[in-house]
Amino acid sequence: MPVIVVANPKGGVGKSTLSTNLAGYFANRGHAVLLGDIDRQQSARAWLNIRPSAAPAIATWEVSEDHIAKPPKGTSHVVLDTPAGLHGWRLNDALKLADKVLVPLQPSIFDILATQDFLRRLAEEKAVRQGEIDVGIVGMRVDARTRSAEQLHRFIEGLNLPVLGYLRDTQNYVQLAAHGLTLWDIAVSRVQRDLDQWQPILDWVDKAPVKLDH
Length: 214
Known about the structure:
Elements: E1 3-6, H1 15-28, E2 33-37, H2 43-49, E3 59-61, E4 77-81, H3 88-97, E5 100-105, H4 109-124, H5 126-129, E6 134-140, H6 147-156, E7 163-167, H7 171-177, H8 188-206
Helix pairs in contact: 4-6
């Protein structure tokens, strides 16, 4: 049962967008997926409350900011949305559960500076170094051909953490979220460009971690 934690200590970088759409991808593939939310704002849970009953089911993972329990039996995939300022024991508890950590990051200098210590902490984590947890970065609201994308690559150079892909700044995410939907809940022709951008991210998500010899 893969557990994918979506984390960045900075707020407003697209954690909930990444979490809900990833859960939607799993649900549309027929998986029994749980979406957990340990953010006080409970954005992911609020989104689940407006999700249409006709859409592929995504269950709520009953977790809170003060307690992260193990997922219930019968679950095949878990996505955990995390709050801004994630650190200390909450981060440790999330990492104990995680098979993969996705870090959404906007390539502005302010977002990069606010995230650099967190990424270094992840890169130095024993479970990450030994291949027990995979960490990947997703550039949010950015065109891969811009100088901003180049700046993001320069920033993470040396951390040995991959940039999995870039998701463009589009109203598709905003409009779909307002109706409890994801890219995988509507006609492909309406969001083909966005689905194409997701593909390398999904390839990474679907790939089992390669564990190193200890």
